Amino acid sequence: MVLPVFDQADLLPAAIESVLAQTHRDVELVVVNDGSRDGVERVLDRYADHPRVVVLTQPNQKLPSALNSGFAVATGEWFTWTSADNLMLPNQLEVLVARLRARPDLAMVYSDYQAIDGEGRPLRDPAFRPQDQDPRDPSRMRLPREVTTENLLRSGDNFIGASFLYRRDAARLLGPYAEDTFGGEDYDYWLRMHALFAIGHVDEVLYRYRVHANSLNARARALRIADAVDRLRARHEARLAALAAPPAWRCIGLAVPGVRLAGPGEPCDVSAHLLSRRDDPAVEEAARRPEVLRVCVVDLPLDALEREALAPYDLLLTREPGAQALASRWFPERAFLLDPSAAAPLLARVAAYRLFEKRRVPAPRHPPARVYPVASPLRVGLQAEGLDRGGLEQVVADLAFNLPRERVRATVLVHARAPGAIGARLREAGVDLVITGGDEWRLARAVEERKLQVMSLHYSVAGARDLARRGLASVYTAHNAYVWMEGAERARRAAALRGMDLVVAVSTPVERYVEEVFGVDARRLRVIPNGLDPRGLDAPPASRAALGMRDGDVAFVQVGRFAREKLQGVTLEAFRRIAGGLPGAHLVLAGAPADAGYAAEVTAAIRRAALEDRVHLVHRAGRAEVAGLLRIADCLVQPSLVEGWSVAVMEAMYHGVPLVLTDVGSAREVVRGGIGLVLPNPYPRLAALDLAELRALARSYPEANLAALAEAMREVALRRDAWRARAAAGRARVLGELDVATMARAYADAFEDAWRRARKPAAR
After folding, report:
1. What does each C-alpha distance from 745 to 45, 187, 194, 670 come to in angstroms?
2. 0.85 cut: is pTM over it?
3. Do strands 378-384 and 454-458 pair parallel, antiparallel, or not at all (unpaired)?
4. Which pLDDT tens digit goes with each residue over 130-157?
5. DSSP assignment letter at 739
6. Domain co-membership, 235 together with 275
């Protein structure tokens, strides 16, 4: 339910209360303040934190844009909107929802309504829609029982009125309200709805429509609404003609029964193909013609999908719910769960409709509205199992230091016996920090004493099962794909994640993994890339002499805890292969020995290769020490089997270090502009990777992948200056789009959204 408002602060409270009083209780109200100038904020402040209300605000962009802004954030199954000067009767939604549930053949229903005057009294005006007035009560409008092209379009009578409800799926196929139809946006939408779907009538008065001097209808002459209506009617006549003349299709790799295929030499209007055939010359030819409607059937596995690959298409179709959910998050009005061969008539009509819209209707151009801020800063607990060293731990610290204080008051909860190095630094800086000693009772008491409202969980799920019962919102951050979890542990983690209000993934591959493996609802997932806080990164360079290196020697650096999935042993073997041809090259492996046995294996391998003077282990490297190493590095090597969004990679980008990464985690998203090399994975699908395969790959890395790693390292070493020049562009990215402030704002948004969600009775 969307309620746009512009300069009607006096009437708005009654309109809002009529929504909240609905007997159909599962109602989400999205109020859009479209640049009001009459102090409407005083009213909005009263509802901004209401459990069933979301408030948006935007500069004045007129009604169609306000509607689009509202529906862009709406989450319900049924869509409708109302106005600040009108009133819904308490059973309106209950009756309309029941009719749509009983009639799956209908996409939309509308009902009769009562006209009222400016004071809220029944309207007694023989001039107001005399053709619809009930003889027994002229204030009651008895609308036509069916919708036809003649009575809706040809008559010029927008009779459907203000009491209506339509299906979300129909709205997605239809697209947004046309922004060039101000004053007739509803009429245009009903015409489009009728062109594709069936509309039904409910013979009950369910709404009170106010007729007064400040309504759009009353100001129609001054606003030239009649001219807009004439234009939209003429355009709809052209739309119907286009729908009656089937466009020419070119299908590559698929069949759509019943469509008209383009003949030899005939240019196509619709180009449809499998995503796996996107490099076909015929596809590329159609891509050069902007007037062609491009339809893509997604036939690749979930973890092979990329936003950039799907972006050019007007319609994205798939048979797989997971792929549809992912594509819908990127392109909500383009992605549909639809089999082209099984639903060919619907696809043909929708494609003809979308082709007309693409060629004749201006696309929405206004920026999205902003969510109205919560009334006061949220009290948020940042919870982790420890804060010693590591990327996850650094992200928690970065949030503690950088969350906008006007929106969030943060407490750090370390569910361990000691704060760790990063925790100690936070405490010294005055951050509110609690050490629970691993005791859930102490954790719960700290949460209660500080009256926390949102828990931000970073791997730790201690106490998570009780959060909802205690009225707290929960935001879990998946910093990695948990391929090492098996059996009962994986099941427990899946249950914990499915109980969260929101799950944040640090990269798109991690998001896909969490959705597919742990079964998290796609609507509760969002991606927030890690951001970089450059403070502390300008530490003095490490001493080359202390590492046994001379000026001019090539320095390869790998940063990360010693664990089999990090593959320090593989990096060592690749270095051994190229060391003979690069006599001045050195390798530094920096990271805590999390797996002491694996660290010992790597140490033994260094001795066997007689590389003690050229391979250097740095097991106690804090952030300053890592920064010093990166300042002397010529290449960051990271051949990990799994990653989330590597903080070490961003720190290397800050120092302009060329990157050699495997295609995991954030690799493809950060390596742009030639700042490094991305190497293939040794496994086909992340979601299919388990602990046994992970261990097998760590023990016996495929020769082809090992050779590719060695060759990439050799390439960077031999053309060191050229790679350094390219990698310099990385610094601008981590100080711009990937900076810590961007990350902190995104987390503040997530906390506010989770808090609103947690307070909505139906959301959980």
Report:
1. 22, 39, 42, 20
2. no
3. parallel
4. 999 999 999 999 999 999 999 999 999 9
5. B
6. no
